[in-house]
Fold this protein.
Amino acid sequence: MNRAWAEFFGVLRLILTVVSTLLVQAVRFFAWLFKRIIVVPLLVIGDQIVRPYFFTIYSVVVYPALVYLLAVFRGLLVFVRYAIDVFNAFVPPIAGILNAFRLVVVNQRFTGPINRTFDTKESPEQTV
């Protein structure tokens, strides 16, 4: 009985092997066909037509614009560093002069808690 089952499953395995091999080879063939019909022409178009246009656009527009912006920002950096140096040279003497003047007199005497009401009319104890 076991030999009969072994023969049956052996034939079934042989059939499944042949069918799966045919399916795998069909998929490989259609992949090869897809590559030859669609991918290769797109590569040729990309290499021969699109890439030269992109290279031209990059060489004529993008690279000069980026070099120009680099030069502008480097010049701006030099200017800002110089302006900061000038600012650091002039501000301390001016701060010292302004520090010599007393602009506000602060009374630090504490007279007690401040009782304020939020009425629109001022009460006599709020006016000091």
